[in-house]
Amino acid sequence: MRNEFMAAWDGLRSKENQRILILGATNRPFDLDDAVIWRLPRRILVDLPDAKNRMKILKILLAKENLKSDFRFDELANAMEGYSGSDLKNLCIAVAYRPVHELLEQESKGDTGSTKTSLRALKLDDFVQAKAKVLVCCFRCDEHEGAKKMERAVWRRWQ
Q1: pLDDT in tens, 11-57
Q2: Residues 57, 27: one domain?
Q3: Nearest one of 61, 77, 86 to 137, comparing CA atoms
Q4: Of 34, 30, 45, which Cα lies nearest the Cα of 2?
Q5: Which of 20, 144, 8, 130 is closest to 82 using CA atoms?
């Protein structure tokens, strides 16, 4: 399949005054074949968000959620190192359901407590609990730090 792709790419022709733009995206840039990389004159590495940007993402994702008054976005952002924007979204969705599940569990036990049912505010501990259950798309951990450094060095070579 790679050979067919390369042959088709090499066969692309355009008129002198026309342009062809080829745009590609991958979450595994280090696995690209050298022949593909050679044909891509510009490359932009979009890495995982740092703590500051994770905090911005979390503030957007949680803007309409009921959060405890002492909720610490900075603490949450620091605890989510290695999470992509998509991972953070999945985590926030899981966390948002926690109070709902708790309420349903109370009602199923017949323990409504009051006639007014309201969901409690989200707290940092909800994220700690959900973090153990929500999978991270980008597998990154300390034992692979050397591999990550090597990948970045290889990436810089291709830029």
Answers
A1: 666 667 777 777 788 877 777 888 877 777 787 878 889 999 999 99
A2: no
A3: 86
A4: 34
A5: 144
